[in-house]
């Protein structure tokens, strides 16, 4: 494999891209509990498809370094992270007050290995950002990440740690502006909230709006203060199909790219917007969903692809496998190759399945109105004096001696990436959260400080971008802050189907497959 630096091609969209794919073979063993729709097993199914389609041979496969406590605390409150680290199914009875406070319960249950699960999926997203920052790849993929609902001090909607916010903070070390795009059917509230009052990050979420979790994401929510017009929301109704979706996605994202000119893009590819999802109500095909990936890729800007929701797990695996092939620029056939989860994919045994004939409640008039409104917001941004953007400052250069030794061998399929945490982003004091959003009505001194603090974050990051001499690349490969080892992996329950997701005989025979060998 070519190990030279960033190879973003200027050629046609079909050009190959250098892709880093993050996967930990343990991730499929975590289990939210019986009846819970979130199934980390879907990542193992995705990986099995990638393996059998031969796609692993086209990309750099990395095992993420678990994110450390101090990495998580760049965004999350210390006491919340401490709680996540300590709570276990056995200890939770004594921690009822804390469970309530941190919103841990039915949607976000305590399960065995919860903290290591968070470290793993977050390590992949931060690792992807580091790889992109170093110019080691054009596209980084972490299908285990994308948990967009987590807040600074609160779990929400199956999400505990917001790996996206942390990955964006990492990208901000190198890039003046980062664009976040969210195609999960749910509103990307946690990410929007974190960056609501800054122009360093633009967030765009497409989602079902109206009597649907989490209830936020009104088209009129556009950011605040310096962040005004840098948060966009695209509210949609049931049954949206590929054509309707793309009639919004492409013109809006073209304009965003033209006006905002981000240095990096993070695309949350929640697959619950697919037709037939157990929790979702949209009618997108895998090709329609993947068209968003293809489109964002076509801008040749460093791209981080993340997972998210997705509850009909056979379709999640289909979708993320196909999207990996799109990222690579490699065509794969519709007929599914033999793989250990082939029984899930019957009776079609194909990658693509037809969407349904459900009603599309998004009328042409509604779609036209939404598009016009968003393009109007973007035109205001375009004409604002503050958006006379400078060209990107030069990317931080990293000397060879700062490179993690373990990461030099590009053929090493079991690479670990070090999370670069030497830039001190004091996010703890300034997390611009919904608090800021809600409290703008009657600002108190403390709240004003919160609002101001995000500018401090921006200044700090800016100085980091410019002051490359002081930017140290962490070299502590595998460093763990104490008891980082997985607490527990229950192999027998992984992949258990509570609904109609899996053939019954898969329920009991799952054991952790040592995919390390295949990496
Ligand atoms: F159906 C369930 C069974 C067990 C536990 C939870 C659920 C469930 C389904 N839908 N929970 C939900 C949503 N929660 C509520 C709650 C009712 N309340 C007062 C809140 O409606 C949460 C849906 C979360 C969606 C997560 C996501 O797809 O956006 C995602 N993205 O990245 C990771 C997950
Ligand atoms: Ca969304």
From TrEMBL:
Q: Where is the composition biased (Acidic residues)?
A: 398-409
Q: Where is the composition biased (Polar residues)?
A: 385-397
Listed EC numbers: 3.5.1.98
Query: What cofactor does its activity depend on?
Result: Zn(2+)
Q: Spans of biased composition, class Basic and acidic residues?
A: 410-419, 502-513
Please list the residue ranges annotated as the Histone deacetylase domain: 36-325
Q: Where is this region: Disordered?
A: 385-430, 464-519
Any Pfam family hit = Hist_deacetyl
Q: Where in the cell is it found?
A: Nucleus
Listed SUPFAM superfamilies: Arginase/deacetylase (SSF52768)
Highest taxon of the lineage:
Eukaryota
* Keyword annotations of the record: Chromatin regulator, Hydrolase, Nucleus, Repressor, Transcription, Transcription regulation
Q: Does the keyword Hydrolase apply?
A: yes
Tell me where it mainly resides.
nucleus
The protein's annotated catalytic reaction(s) are:
N(6)-acetyl-L-lysyl-[histone] + H2O = L-lysyl-[histone] + acetate
Broad enzyme group: hydrolase
Q: Which family does it belong to?
A: Belongs to the histone deacetylase family. HD Type 1 subfamily.
Name listed for the protein in its UniProt record: Histone deacetylase
